[in-house]
Amino acid sequence: MANTVGTNAIPPAVTVMPTVATSKGHTRAGAAAAVRPTGRVRSGVGLGLVAGALTRATSDFVSVCTQVDIVESQHDRDLSSRRVGALTRLPPPSPTQIAGAASTAYTLGGAVLRIVAGC
Q1: Taxonomically, which superkingdom (predicted)?
Q2: Which one of 37, 45, 100, 116 has the lowest number of neighbouring Cβ atoms within 10 Å?
Q3: Would you tell me the crossing angle of helices 95-117 and 39-80 to the nearest 10 degrees?
Q4: CB count, 10 Å around CB of 112?
Q5: Bridge partner residues of 29 (DSSP)
Q6: Which tens digits make up the pLDDT trace of 52-106?
Q7: Is residue 100 included in any domain, yes or no?
Q8: Which domain holds residue 45?
C-alpha cells in the first residue's frame, strides 16, 4: 500500500541508530557504541554529586534536630511527672556530626561510582 497525501495510512517507522567514531577511525552504530562524556557532562555529574550530598546533609540535620527535640520534650515530661528512670539520660547526638557523616558517605559513594564509570 503506497503512502499518499490525504489518506490515513501510517508511514513506516524509521529507526536512526547513533554512530560513534572509534579510535581507529571506524564508526560503530547502535547501543553498544561507547560514548565518552564531555567536560560539560563531567561538571554536571560533579555538581549533581555536590547537590546530592548537600541535600542528604540537610535532611539528616533536620531529622536529628527533630529527634533531639522530641527526646528533650519527653525527658522534660518524665521529670515533671517524676517517672522512674527520668534521671538516666544519654547525651543526644550532634546534628552537625550526623549531617557531616551523611554528606561524606554520600560523596564517597558517588565518587566510587564515578571512578567505576570513568567519568
Answers
A1: Eukaryota
A2: 116
A3: 150
A4: 10
A5: 19
A6: 889 999 999 999 999 999 988 888 888 888 776 666 777 888 999 999 999 999 9
A7: yes
A8: 39-117
CA dist 47 and 30 (Å) reads 29
* Residue 2 counted as domain residue: no
Domain total for the chain? Answer: 1
The answer to whether 103 and 56 have CB atoms below 8 angstroms apart is: yes
| Helix (H) or strand (E) segment spanning residue 19 | strand 19-21
Which residues, listed in sequence order, are joined to residue 27 by a DSSP beta bridge? 21
pTM above 0.85, yes or no: no
Residue 34 lies in a domain: no
Mean pLDDT throughout 16-42?
56
Does residue 72 belong to any structural domain of this protein? yes
Distance CA 44, CA 19 (A): 24
